[in-house]
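thread from #wetlab-drylab

HS: before we spend reagent money on co-crystallization trials with adenosine-5'-triphosphate, can we at least see a predicted complex? here's what I'd submit
DV: go for it
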Amino acid sequence: LTREGFSSVPNEKWEDIGGLDYLREEFKSKVIGPIKYPEAYKEFGLASQMGILLFGPPGCGKTLTAKAVANDAGANFIYIKGPELLSKFVGESERQVRLLFSRARACSPCIIFFDEVDGLSAKRDMEGGSGVERVVTQLLAELDGAQGVIVIGATNRPDKMDGALLRSGRFGKKFYIPLPSFEQRFSILKVLARKKPVDSTVDLRAIAKACENFSGADLAELMDEAGFAAVNEKLSLDQSLRSILARHFDIALSKVIKSVSP
Ligand code: ATP
């Protein structure tokens, strides 16, 4: 948290994300637009959404989405894990939160991405002030006065979220990012295939069908495993091999185990 130069505009773009077009539209009108064209939004009496919560199973694009939002808006991006803000020293947690927001304001427009925001309450039960209550209070205060700072929170466990944070209305918009459907898996595979020499004969639809309940991260792993299978074949058998073929995906499918149970 105290590192210098820890914020920058991320490189991830909407084109790098498969299957979440509806989210892109929401973010464009509620977050990116107000950052890029503040006057126009003001004219229509519209303010930017300051806090947004993304929830859903791991590896389905929450971080990717937040980074693409920052990239599109030309905003700096600060990644922070909720629990990192907790300190057992009195006053230290609040100080960290204040520091975080003052840095964000200094490089606004800025998006603070809070991974594992649920972690700000999971420790509430722990004996000895973990500082949760104070962190949440400080966070709410900062959210009120944060000019040009947008907070995107992410959690796999919305049920574990701190009640005060949810009730406050600061996270005014909540979006569920589920495990991808068949069509979404197909979109994700197409996005991932652009970064590798996947042969044009490979039927990505069929692969999408075979990958029920795979997360985006699982599909990325599958694509890598197919690449490894192809490279192995090239180095050990056939030096003329130039692309990833269906048989390499078969090998990959036998290796990748889906990480999220439905
Ligand atoms: P976590 O809860 O574990 O932090 P997350 O939802 O933030 O998960 P990401 O970090 O966005 O997940 O995704 C992990 C990786 O999985 C990405 O870097 C990307 O390779 C791949 N991935 C996940 N979802 C998608 C998607 N919708 N389109 C393309 N790639 C995806």
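DV: The pocket of adenosine-5'-triphosphate is lined by residues 17-20, 58-64, 115, 154, 156, 188, 191, 216-217, 220 (CB under 6 Å).
HS: ok that's useful, forwarding to the group
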